[in-house]
Amino acid sequence: MRIVLLLALLVTLPALGQSLSLSPIEAQVLSELNFARTEPQRYAREVLEPMRAHFRGTEIVEPPWRTRKPGVVQVVETQEGVQALEEAIDAMKAAQPVPALTPSYGLTLAARAYRKEQAKQGRIGHIGQDGSTPADRIERFGRWEGVAGENLFYGDGDVQVGRFVVMALIIDDGVADRGHRHTIMEAGYTLVGIAFGPHPLYGGLCVQNFAAEFYDAP
Question: How high is the pLDDT of residue 157?
Answer without folding.
Answer: 87
